[in-house]
Every structure is written in C-alpha cells, then in structure tokens.
Amino acid sequence: MSTAKKDYKRITTKSLIEMKANGEKISMLTAYDYTMAKIVDTAGVDVILVGDSASNVMAGHETTLPITLDQMIYHASSVVRAIQRSLVVVDLPFGSYQSDSKEALRSAIRIMKESGAHAVKLEGGREIKDSIKKILHAGIPVMGHLGLTPQSIYKFGTYTVRAKEEEEAEKLIDDAKLLERIGCFAVVLEKIPAALAKRVAESISIPVIGIGAGGGVDGQVLVVHDMLGMTHEFSPRFLRRYMNLFEDMNIAISQYVSDVKSTDFPNEQEQY
C-alpha cells in the first residue's frame, strides 16, 4: 500500500528500495556535464545516469560502443560536481567488464575513485555475474540492465523490442532474479513488452526502472536530450518530448546571428 511521500535530502540505494516498498515511483534521467546535471538535480530527479549514451548525444557516434572508460570518468566527474540530492550511477563502457571479472573490478574502482560517483551499471545477466559479484564484493553498488542492451547491438542486429518470445522472456525473468539474488540494488529494463516488465517488477524486491517497458515498473528513465527535444531524428514510441529545444534553440541562435550581423548586438546598455 502506498504511503506518504518521504522527503529525501539525499538519494541513496537504500532510498530507492524504500521508494519501491512505499509505492513511490522513481525518476531517472541522464546527464553528462556540470550544467545539465545541476538543472536535473535541482528539478528533483532521483537518479542521474551518466550513460554510455554520451557516445551518441555528446560525441555523435552511431552506437554506444566507442566511448572509453576515461571518457566516462570525465563525464561522471563533471556530473558529480553539480549534484546535491540525486544518486549518480555510471555506465561501465563496452569492453571494460565483459571478458574479465578482474578488469571489471578495476574499471568500477576507477569510476568510483576518480569521479566520486555512487554506483555503476552493467548490461547483462548470468553471462556477467562473475563481474558483478566481484564489484559487489568490493563494496561498490551495482545497477543491472536487461532487455535491449545497446552494447550488444551488433549481436542483436536491431533496436526492436526484446523478449517477445517465451524463451527470451523466461531468461530475462531468471536474470532479473539472479541480479537481485547476488546483490544488485536495482535493474533497468529496456524496450520489452509492458506485461513482461510488470511481471518482473512484481517478482523481485529491488526497484525496476523502465525505458520503453510500460508503466507497471517502479520508475522511468529517459535520455535528457531526447525528453527535452534537443534531438529530433530519434522518435521511438516510448519517448515523450516535454520541450522542443532543438527548434527553440535554433530560433534563438539564428536571432543572435542576425543581431550581430545587423549591429543590433551589443547595444548601448550591453557595453562598458
């Protein structure tokens, strides 16, 4: 049963588990730099994800694969310096944890020590359980990620909805239970059927954060550039644009160019 909303001065992994238990939905957005993180944190978002989606929206790559551990640490450090309330979770980038659990631990330690972040996120289930266990044993909180896992895009070959077939759906449920069992504090489910996501959320006690996974989960995450309308080519069904900043910023910058060209800017009041 839902209870009154608790006023958290600082969100922790424990806070998120309490929020699920109390029926309070969890809000999560990405951020990759100080200025955006300051805005997101001040607005009251519970979790800031320093996602490897920075590879797409910040660096212009087609996939998340090219971003490096050093680059993720740079982005995470910028975000951590801005926040006062939000929990900061950082993606371990492709190649930093999949093949070697010792390498996974070294990568996670670097992120925590060099950026000051609060947790890391890894894509995958039973195939990376050794990496997750080693990181958890070092005292580093881990958020899981199942369903569509963008770091495996060349394996999938498409960004379409995952786990529509019973076999894959059952594996996803088993993986979610495994992640809870070994100690993950939350799990992201990306682009899977809403009914399946609801089933997962009801079968585990840790929070389930959805992106394209319907409303039956414990919280939602979006890429901040997408929800603010700074990107305009990307329009999946699950994306709600709360602004159209691409158009608004284009108009503002065009006006600035015009004012400079016409010598309207700076005027008498805008100079010393």
TrEMBL record:
The active site is at residue 190. It comes from Flavobacterium suaedae. PANTHER family: 3-METHYL-2-OXOBUTANOATE HYDROXYMETHYLTRANSFERASE (PTHR20881). Pathway: Cofactor biosynthesis; (R)-pantothenate biosynthesis; (R)-pantoate from 3-methyl-2-oxobutanoate: step 1/2. It is an enzyme of class 2 (transferase). Mg(2+) binds at residues 52, 91, 123. This is 3-methyl-2-oxobutanoate hydroxymethyltransferase. Its cofactor is Mg(2+). It comes from the Bacteria. The keyword Transmembrane helix does not apply. It catalyses: (6R)-5,10-methylene-5,6,7,8-tetrahydrofolate + 3-methyl-2-oxobutanoate + H2O = 2-dehydropantoate + (6S)-5,6,7,8-tetrahydrofolate.
